[in-house]
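User: Some background: our group keeps a shared notebook of sequences we're curious about, and every so often someone picks one and asks for a predicted structure to add to the entry. Today it's my turn. The entry only has the sequence so far, pasted here. Could you supply the structure so I can complete it?
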Amino acid sequence: MNQKINAKYKISDIEIELKPFNFIRIHRSFIVNPKKITAFTVNDIEIGKKEIPIGTNYKEYVFKLLKSQKH
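Assistant: Of course. Here's the predicted structure to add to the notebook entry:
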């Protein structure tokens, strides 16, 4: 599904709203559902064939979280 949503909200507000649903912020411009991640490296994640960069400020947190969920 390649659907874009335009919202007049700050991404930090959306992040707070989605936190109870286990979404994670991986970049200043991206929040994702970790259950949809099909692959990842230290630099990006993949959801299907779509590559999404992991922001520098989020790398340590995201990588640690994804490694712990892998097993």
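Suggested note for the entry: The two ends are 27 Å apart (CA to CA). The CA atoms of residues 23 and 33 lie 5 Å apart.
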